[in-house]
Design brief:
This protein is of the alpha/beta class and 121 residues long. It is 39% helix and 21% strand. The chain has helices at residues 17-32, 71-89, 109-120, and strands at residues 3-8, 40-44, 59-65, 96-102. It has a four-stranded mixed sheet with strand order 2-1-3-4, with helices on one face. This is Macrophage migration inhibitory factor.
Amino acid sequence: MPCLNVSTNVNLDGIDTSSILSEASKTVANILGKPEAYVMIVVKGSVPMSFGGTQQPTAYGELVSIGGLNPDTNKKLSAAIAAILESKLSVPKSRFFLKFYDTKAHQSQENAQCLHALHQH
C-alpha cells in the first residue's frame, strides 16, 4: 500500500485540499502502477518548518511503498508531486524534499508492521 505523507508550513485554511488529495492519489497510483484503491495520501499544514534558513513556503514528504520504487520512478514521483504542491500551495519546486522508503529493500519493522496491519482491515 503506497502511502504519501506530506507536511508543509503553508496554512491549509481556504485551500481545496480535496483536489490536492485526489491529484496526488492518482499520480502516485499511475507512476507506481498500483491500484489507486491501495494509495493513501496524508497532507498536514501549518507545520512549523524552515528550509535554507527561511520560513517561506516549503514542504517535506515521505513515500512508503512495498516495491515499485527505483531511481527513475522516484524522479518522476518527486517532479509530479512537486508540481502539484507548486500549483495548489505555491510551494516552489526547489523548496520541496521527498524521501522514499521501499519496505522490501529497506525492511523497517515499524513500517512493515504498520502496512501489514492496515492491509488486514
